[in-house]
Design goal:
122 residues, mainly beta, seven-stranded mixed beta sheet, four-stranded antiparallel beta sheet, 11 strands, 49% strand
Length: 122
Amino acid sequence: DVRLVESGGGLVQPGGSLRVSCTASGFNFSSSAMSWVRQAPGKGLEWVSSIGSDRTMIHYAPSVKGRFTMSADNAKNTLYLQMNSLKPEDTAVYYCAASEFMGFVVSSYTYWGQGTQVSVSS
């Protein structure tokens, strides 16, 4: 079975840092493009970042560029999102997703995790 399991969410103060992880199984992680998507309370899905299957091309949404860093460890089948300088508007459920090709259209992603809550508040 395909599984994407996010972890590492929690409550952090504004300006703080947090790293969320996504462990994959049941499909070829190293050949898949991967993405992070978030959903704030009462809002729709928002694309955050994507990494290509070659793990060299990474793109970020303007709202997180310069603050968030995405990476992947193929040996561990794990995706990471390091989040620095967090703001209250970063509060959301963060999902990882897999796709055959790198893209920014969240409806095109094939596999999804269950999400991990990140809350930024003083």
